[in-house]
Amino acid sequence: xxNNQLVECVPNFSEGRRPEVVEAIVDCFRGKKGVKLLDYxxxxxxxxxxxxxxxQPGAMKAAVVDAIGVAVERIDLRxxxxxxxRLGAADVIPFIPLRNMTMQEAVxxxxxxxxxxxxxxxxxxxxxxxxxxxSHRTNLADVRKGGFEGLALKMQDQAWQxxxxxxxxxxxxxxxxxxxxxxxxxxxILLNSNDLDAAKAIAKxxxxxxxxxxxxxxxxxxxxxxxxxxxxxxxxxxTQTTLPQVFxxxxxxxxxxxxxxxxxxxxGLMPLQALVDTTAHYLKLDDFSIDRVxxxxxxx
Amino acid sequence: xxNNQLVECVPNFSEGRRPEVVEAIVDCFRGKKGVKLLDYxxxxxxxxxxxxxxxQPGAMKAAVVDAIGVAVERIDLRxxxxxxxRLGAADVIPFIPLRNMTMQEAVxxxxxxxxxxxxxxxxxxxxxxxxxxxSHRTNLADVRKGGFEGLALKMQDQAWQxxxxxxxxxxxxxxxxxxxxxxxxxxxILLNSNDLDAAKAIAKxxxxxxxxxxxxxxxxxxxxxxxxxxxxxxxxxxTQTTLPQVFxxxxxxxxxxxxxxxxxxxxGLMPLQALVDTTAHYLKLDDFSIDRVxxxxxxx
Lengths: 300, 300
Fold this sequence. Notes:
The structure is a homodimer.
Chain A lengths: L5 E4 L2 E2 L5 H8 L8 E9 L4 E8 L1 H18 L15 E10 L3 H19 L3 E5 L10 H5 L6 H4 L21 E5 L4 E7 L4 H11 L9 E8 L4 E8 L7 H14 L4 E7 L4 H11 L11 H6 L1
Helix pairs in contact in A: 1-2, 2-3, 6-7
């Protein structure tokens, strides 16, 4: 692999409440040669953290395997509660090729990390998205279905044998889902409402799997700390559905139910193109493109 | 001056209709070592062109003086018509410090260019904004007041002697206004209306000089090619007034007059921060900042 390759990793861990555990996991990405920690955020309601890091594939692999080790050691899913679905302590670990790297090379990296994590920590590992080894394992929601609590039963099914590691859950850390995929925007819209059914109905209306917007995944969730419900969104391809299209669709679906949008939040990072789309849409800008952004033209 | 200094120059020339003249001027910024042509655009109604270039101060100086020479040679303001106010063929030439450069160093560069243009082309030059030599010459609109047609009379006034060059207008090229200033967003909002008085009233309502938004300059103009009027805006400091604030203010002022906004256009470039402001505003994004833009974190 050449040294100019750049891969992003956005691992999700099932810990968003204990700062000492959060910091121990984040530390695996700090001050490592060849790895840059770009962002991390915790959600208390989700009881979940998301790290965004970019770097060289080899250095990233070492950092991620270390972080999985910390999660396995410090998180006990038997004690874990949170509104976000999860299968394991180190729940989902996607690799995203950013520069001089093919999706196939990101798949190889995902498999190397999965193999190492299974060997070192006795962890069952499922490969998903571009790394999936069967079509029914491609979609994250399908792999995660049943959650940690249903995992032992699920793993008795021949169709759900892991790609690496033992064929029963790790007793405290469940299983880990590792894969490769294109860049994704993780984005939550908070509603001025406590009506979980409404949030679920709005999510259903906008997500592609139930006839909504292309490349849009969505869940309705309750946030106990805010006494508000939210629509939690993954936008997997902004060339198919833009961020303002998603926001406007949620506003419209909410309005028909007499609900207004309180605000929204981005998890991790968004690409410049998403800001270009949003700016052009709301300012009704003609002929606007990424080439009109000063920093982009300078950095190009 | 150190080699890592980066200055932007956004020269405005009074030619937006004859492609061969436009290209001859733009060519001064093409393929020059140390200068990068970032953008250029022509407006037929304004009969004006705006170039955006960035580069090293010395290389930029040479390119800009060449371009002034082409404008003086090829543009005859006695034949020039357009809706945008102008004083000269090479009308306004601002230098904007971008990196490793102080405003005072940009002022020195503006003065060097003004001196050279006056010497080489017999052109009167006024210094404005941070380069102004008297407070009444700071504001571009004041320096340009009266236009090319009123320049001979204006220059008889002791208060309007040029900073460089002869004390009468260049017969065909008028005078040139050169200065240094912070980054500015040039932005036009097109109205679904042919009512010039309405466009002027909206411009007056939003511009700072008549009690409107801080750091906002605005003019109401008629665009003959579109049979629509526009509000032509300069936003000189987006930390004081953001782009969405300006857009919403124009929409509101227009709505009270029964007019809707047809669209908007950016002249030149906008800084990433303007896209961040716009995205955060319309998506109601909490905790959003430039550090959440993928490319920014990578390029930093």
